[in-house]
Amino acid sequence: MSRAEHLLKDHELRSTPVRLDMLSYFLEENRSLGVSQLNTILADKYDRATVYRTLKSFTESGILHRVMDLQEENSYALCDSCKEGSHEDEHVHFLCTNCGKNQCLHDVSIPAVGLPSGYRLKDANMLLEGLCPDCS
Ligand SMILES: [Zn+2]
Ligand SMILES: [Zn+2]
Ligand SMILES: [Zn+2]
Fold this sequence. Notes:
- The chain has one domain (about 5-130): Arc Repressor Mutant, subunit A.
- The chain is of the alpha+beta class and about 140 residues long.
- Helix 1 crosses helix 2 (about 15-30).
- The protein has helices spanning about 5-10, 15-30, 35-40, 50-60, and strands at about 35, 65, 75-80, 90-95, 100-110, 125-130.
- The chain has a three-stranded antiparallel sheet. Strands 5-4-6 form a three-stranded mixed sheet, with no helix packed on it.
- It is built from four helices and six strands, in the order H-H-E-H-H-E-E-E-E-E.
- It is about 30% helix and about 20% strand.
- One zinc ion binds next to loops.
C-alpha cells in the first residue's frame, strides 16, 4: 500500500484516482500548494470542481490544512496528525523568499497572544519569511 493509500485509509476515505493523485503530489513536494497550482497540475485529468471537492474532503477529514500565503488565493499543506473534524495545526509556516517554498514547521508552535477582553480566538496563522536550509 502506498503512503497516499495509507493516509486515506487512516482517515476513512475511499481511494479514488483524484485523491491518490493529489495526495501523492503533496507527499512528493512536502510543501504547501496553492489551488491554482493544483488545478494546473491536475488539469489534464480532472476539472476544477473535482479538485475543489477533493480539497474540501481532505480538509474536513484532517488530511490537509489551510496555509496562509502571500500571493496565493488558497494554499494547503499536509497535516501532521489531525483527525476528522479536529485540526491541530497551530504551527508556524515558513516561506522561503528565494525558492518560494512554504513549509510547515510542525515543531514550532505559534506563541500565545494576549487579546483584549471581549475577543475570542478561533484560529491562528503565523507566516515567517526568510531563507530555507537549501537556500541559506
Ligand atoms: Zn490539520
Ligand atoms: Zn529556499
Ligand atoms: Zn502547516
